[in-house]
Amino acid sequence: MSEVAESLQKALDTGDHEGVVACIPYARYLGIRAEQDDSSGGRIYRMPFRDELVGNARLPALHGGTVAGLLELAMQIEVLISETQPRLPYPIDFSIDYWRSAGAQDCLCRCRLIRSGRRIAQVQAECWQEDAERPVAFARADFLLRAVDDASV
């Protein structure tokens, strides 16, 4: 098993959600953090605002790719954390609906694992900024679940 896979497995075994995020380079670049959601008992994923993430400087608005990256990574991390067996989620289908521009502030995301079977996991996620009742984007994804030993991490 690779060094990254071992770090990931250790983070999952100890419940270190920040350690899981740290194993994913793009998640580190975006600054994604997994936080406890006190209202639901689940997790919220936060992408802190940085000027480098702005796609339209006139508004200013975050680049749509960073919002999509947050949603996809949050869903993958949610599957990783929720799985009882060490299996890596590979995206096989991803769709996103943008509902409004993401302004120059932190983005928050909540995921819902719809189904996790032997080979496929289905997840949906919602992204918002100030008010969870005014979402910025909504995404759905299907992931192929592969054993850590079958994957090159």
TrEMBL record:
InterPro entries xrefs: HotDog_dom_sf, TesB_ACOT8-like_N
Origin: domain of life: Bacteria
Residue ranges occupied by any Acyl-CoA thioesterase-like N-terminal HotDog domain in the UniProt entry: 61-143
Membrane spanning stretches: none
Protein known as: Thioesterase superfamily protein
